[in-house]
Structure formats: C-alpha cells, structure tokens
Write a structure and sequence with these properties.
The protein is mainly α. The chain folds into 2 domains: 158 residues, Ribonuclease iii, N-terminal Endonuclease Domain, Chain A (Orthogonal Bundle), CATH 1.10.1520; 77 residues, Double Stranded RNA Binding Domain (2-Layer Sandwich), CATH 3.30.160. It has 12 helices and 3 strands. Strands 1-2-3 form a 3-stranded antiparallel β-sheet, with helices on one face.
C-alpha cells in the first residue's frame, strides 16, 4: 500500500484532481478481497464510496444530458443516461484512466485477472468519483466527469435506438403478457454487404418488419416500428 501512495500523483494527474486527503483515493482503489486478505477491518474497502459515487455520477450525467439535449423528454434522458453509465462503458473509462495499475485486490483475485474484470473496474471508478466528491465537492467532481465523458455525451442518443427492443418487451409484457418473437424473413446482397429483413410478432400477430445491415439492426428497426404502431393504437383507445 505504501507503493500505491507513492504512485497516486500519476493517477491524480490523469483525473485532473489533486486530493487533499490521499487516503480517500486509496480507499476508493481498495477492493473488498484485498481488505479481507489484509484484515484491514470493516468498511476499509471501496464499497461505501462506490455507493456514493454511483449517486453522484447519476446526478452529474443527468445534469450534462439536461444541458446537451434540451428537446428530449424525461424518458429519453433516462435511457441515454443508462447507455452512458452501463458497466461495460464505465470499465472502458477506467481502463483509459489506467485504474488496473492502481486497484488493490487479493492475490487470489489478481491471479484470476481481477483488475481487468468489468465489475471491479466499474466499481472502482464509481468509488473514485465518490472520493473526489467528498474531497472536493460537487463542482470539482462535475468538472472531472465533464472531461471524462466529454466525447461520449454527444453520442448518448445512441441509447435511444439501442433500447427499442427492451422498450417493446416491457410494453408487450405489461399489455399482453407476451414476449416479442423475432424472425429473419429474408437475407439479400453479397456476403460483404448483406441486408436482412426481420419481423416481430406478439401472440401470433406480426406487428412490424425492419431492414438493416445486420440481424440486430433489422430487429431494432422492427421493434421501433412496432412501438410506433402500439403507441398509436393506445392513443386511439384512449380517444375512443
């Protein structure tokens, strides 16, 4: 751990934040397996900071999305936020910061590649965010996250198209108690540039078809059209 303290300035430089209390950052980097192995005592790991950091991250990302997408609804903003803070994306940002070089895990966890696991990386990043918030306050953590997510925020609208299938499933399960079924209807074009057509059905009723360069893309388009159809039907029912 003494070695970690010596290397902290490098991580602080990457974060763009200098800790008044370096112990907070060390705790943020301490996985529960290491704390247990070294018998550091209760609450010496990063789980409480991870809890706090998760809430801070959600607040800051919500703020950034609110500013960047003034014309979008609360539901759209929620889906974009979910796309931004998913575990895989947080793990990639942790990798970019070089967190695997700093996270403390037990010897057993280390042999299993623990510092490269998405769950450990994402948790450590959230814990670091919590530590920055405690040490520097909301304005400082806001600026750190603005820089860290700067290139991703403009891309957050991808979270809307990526979520059509799950939104359709939520709707059909609530309304019909059925799960959508997807079927490839056709495949055309050369191997290097195929085009797929996929249909989606619920309870034996075909709701829509979609086309795309991949089966996944075609299914997303089918789900988007099905959602539009069902939304229109619901509106007509309410007006009747």
């Amino acid at each position: 751990m003494r070695e970690l303290y010596q290397r902290l300035p490098l991580l602080e430089e990457r974060l763009g934040f200098r800790f008044r209390d370096p112990g907070l950052l060390v705790r943020a980097l301490t996985h529960r397996s290491y704390a247990a192995e070294k018998k550091l005592g209760p609450r010496a790991d990063n789980e409480r900071l991870e809890f706090l950091g998760d809430a801070v991250l959600s607040a800051v990302i919500s703020h950034l999305l609110y500013e960047r997408f003034p014309g979008h609804s609360e539901g759209d903003l929620s889906r974009m936020r979910a796309w931004l803070v998913r575990e895989k994306r947080l793990a990639a940002l942790a990798e970019k910061l070089g967190l695997p070089e700093f996270i403390l895990v037990s010897r057993g966890e280390d042999r299993c590649g623990g510092t490269r696991k998405a769950s450990i990386l994402a948790g450590a990043l959230e814990a670091v965010i919590g530590a920055i918030y405690l040490d520097g306050g909301y304005e400082r953590v806001f600026e750190c996250l603005r820089r860290l997510f700067g290139r991703l925020i403009p891309q957050a609208s991808r979270g809307l198209s990526a979520d059509y299938r799950s939104r359709l499933q939520e709707l059909t399960q609530a309304r019909f108690r059925e799960t959508p079924l997807y079927r490839v209807v056709s495949e055309e074009g050369p191997p290097h540039a195929p085009r797929f057509e996929v249909e989606v059905a619920v309870g034996g009723r075909v709701l829509a078809r979609g086309r795309g360069a991949s089966k996944k893309e075609a299914a997303q388009e089918a789900a988007r059209r099905a959602l539009a159809l069902l939304s229109k039907e619901l509106e007509e029912e309410h007006e009747a």
